[in-house]
Amino acid sequence: SQTIHQWPATLVQPVGSPLSLECTVEGTSNPNLYWYRQAAGRGLQLLFYSVGIGQISSEVPQNLSASRPQDRQFILSSKKLLLSDSGFYLCAWSVDGDQPQHFGDGTRLSIL
Amino acid sequence: GQNIDQPTEMTATEGAIVQINCTYQTSGFNGLFWYQQHAGEAPTFLSYNVLDGLEEKGRFSSFLSRSKGYSYLLLKELQMKDSASYLCAVRGSTDSWGKLQFGAGTQVVVTP
What we know:
The structure holds two protein chains of two kinds.
Chain A: E1 3-7, E2 10-13, E3 19-26, E4 32-38, E5 44-52, E6 55-58, E7 64-70, E8 73-78, E9 87-94, E10 102-103, E11 107-111
Parallel strand pairs in A: 2-11
Antiparallel strand pairs in A: 1-3, 3-8, 4-5, 4-9, 5-6, 7-8, 9-10, 9-11
Chain B: E1 3-5, E2 9-13, E3 18-25, E4 32-37, E5 44-49, E6 53-57, E7 60-65, E8 70-75, E9 84-90, E10 101-102, E11 106-111
Parallel strand pairs in B: 2-11
Antiparallel strand pairs in B: 1-3, 3-8, 4-5, 4-9, 6-7, 7-8, 9-10, 9-11
């Protein structure tokens, strides 16, 4: 069966520091991968999606970036975090564009 | 653009039935998804409708009317563990990316 791993579970970072969140999927090949952010009490906002290695599309202009160095690895990064980057970051995968997305456990990011 | 509306909060008694409505206005339609999200956790997939009609999965059912831009999630025989936020999400295009637009969620509170 397929599983998705996301780490770390929680992270506290100072403003201006860099960020790297990692997501890996097991048990499937060439999945569609997604990064979402959920602000407190708000809906999920799609940040990035990828349909293959090196193929990244951005949905929202921001100081975040994403990379997919391997088929089942998706990384969310920032060079300098802002206070507004606080939130719950969720990675998701799907078999293809027609199938449901399944989420990792998420990373709760607090910026001080 | 896409607009997805669902009630903010609903309260129901254990053992009762609750119906969560979702209306959407999207540029194209290629599926509607329901997710459950417990506080502090990631969303989990519940159901998926792409054609009109009712999909039943145990205590949970989801209905779709594409002509009305309307869906509902029906929760029967409510249990305390059903207290959670329920997210409606629409896949608004027919491309292969599978991008979802999420509503803000409906918080269901189950009381004894």
